[in-house]
Amino acid sequence: MIGRIIGALVGREIDRRDGQGGAKGALLGYAAAGAMRRMGPLGLVLGGAYVAKKAYDRRKGRI
C-alpha cells in the first residue's frame, strides 16, 4: 500500500518537470512502484527520499 502511494508521488514529481499533465506521470509512477517493490525496503526508502527532496526544494523556492 505504501509503495503504491510513493509510486504515485514519484510519478507526479516526474510529470511536473515537463508541465504537461496526463497519462505519462501515471505510467511512470506505476513503473516506479513496480521497480521499488522489486528493490524491497531500499526501493521504498529511495522513492520516499526522492519525493521528500523535491517537496523540500519546492517549499524552499517559495520562501
From TrEMBL:
<protein>
    <submittedName>
        <fullName>Uncharacterized protein</fullName>
    </submittedName>
</protein>
